[in-house]
Amino acid sequence: MAKPGLEVRPIGGFIGGEVRGIDLSCPLSAQTCRELRAALSRYGVLVIPDQELTMEQYVRLGEAFGELEPNDTLAHPDGFPQVGSLIKEADHVTSIGDMWHTDHTYLERPMAYTMLRAVDLPPHGGDTLFLSAKAAFAALPDAVKETLRTLKGLHSRSYLIRDGKYAAQFLAERPPQGGKIGPNKTAVHPVVTTLPETGEEVLFINPGYVVKFDGWSAKLSQGLLDSLFEHCLQPEFQFRLRWRENTIAIWDNRQTWHFAVNDYQGHRRSMQRLVIDKRGDD
After folding, report:
1. Helix (H) or strand (E) holding 83
2. Is 98 assigned a catalytic role?
3. How does pLDDT run across 88-146, given as a tens digit for each residue?
4. The domain 7-277 belongs to what CATH superfamily?
């Protein structure tokens, strides 16, 4: 990177970079923001360890990447409604995000980035898995790519929690902000999208929110979707983030999936999330 002291080290072969030589408690220069966004486009996920921030500094960091999405579904720290609290108490069985998904693709304009920081961690477990949908698309045969470029996918907010028993337990443990479920939202997006920063193509589907291909029945869609999901889930397209205290991660929702591993029953895990819309002039 151009800035002296700022270094990004690859974590996996296709996804993930660890950022060193930066203090996020200080306001970021325009040049540093450009370098971080360029690294995020390249690596998909940036992991930035050893960052002890106040809530004001954390929000300011998110705003350096774009406009913060209003948080209308999660509890939040007092005075910071844009910060979503992702908390699994020791007696909770279910966990938020413990399936492969991409954040908020049910929106007409999906959010570009998600930022997460660890507040309280269990003594073991609680990792997050990431995979590169960019690398997965690049590895497909050309004939399959051509077919996928002609398709669109239907994304639904309600599809992430589609098992009735799971949904009832989840909502009993963690009722949404305001105590009620928000309206179901759906959106149709091309199955193959292009990252404007690099011109690279991405497979823009995910198991959490994609119901079917637009114009296809769910039954007819399922075979191809399952095949694509299996392809994406190959280990070489993934990396595993083992959270440590004062670690911040930011990922590009347009080219990644993630999975919050629920393997720490009996322990508390608390994270704080910002969801970010990329500004048009960036």
Report:
1. none
2. no
3. 999 998 888 899 999 999 999 999 999 999 999 999 999 999 999 999 999 999 999 99
4. Clavaminate synthase-like (3.60.130.10)
How far is residue 106's CA from residue 189's CA, in Å, rounded to a whole number? Answer: 9
Q: How far is Cα 279 from Cα 34, in angstroms, rounded to an integer?
A: 13
The two structure tokens encoding residue 185? 């939202």
Q: Considering the candidates 155, 189, 254, 258, report the single residue annotated as catalytic.
A: 258
* pLDDT, greater one: 174 or 254: 254
Query: What is the DSSP secondary-structure string of 159-215?
Result: GGG--HHHHHHHHHHSPPGGGSPPPP-EEEEESEEE-TTT--EEE---TTTEEEETT
Distance CA 250, CA 90 (A): 26
CA distances 144 to 28, 139, 159, 191, Å, are 42, 10, 26, 12
Given 92, 117, 174, 273, the catalytic residue? 273
104 catalytic? Reply is no
Asked about 189 being catalytic, the answer comes back as no
Sorted by where each begins, the domain ranges of the chain are 7-277
- pLDDT tens digits, one per residue of 54-93: 999 999 999 999 999 887 777 888 888 899 999 999 999 8
Q: What is the pLDDT of residues 253-281, one digit of tens each?
A: 999 999 999 999 999 999 999 999 976 55
Q: Which of 37, 103, 174, 189 is catalytic?
A: 103
- Non-local CB neighbours of 208 within 8 Å, separated by 6+ positions: 99, 100, 101, 102, 105, 159, 160, 257
CB atoms near residue 123 (< 10 Å): 8
C-alpha 131, offset from chain centre: 10
Q: With 80 as the cut, is the pLDDT of residue 178 above it?
A: no
Length of the chain equals 282
For the question of residue 279 being annotated catalytic, the response is no
* Selected catalytic residue, list 37, 92, 101, 157: 101
pLDDT category at 157 given cuts 50, 70, 90 is confident
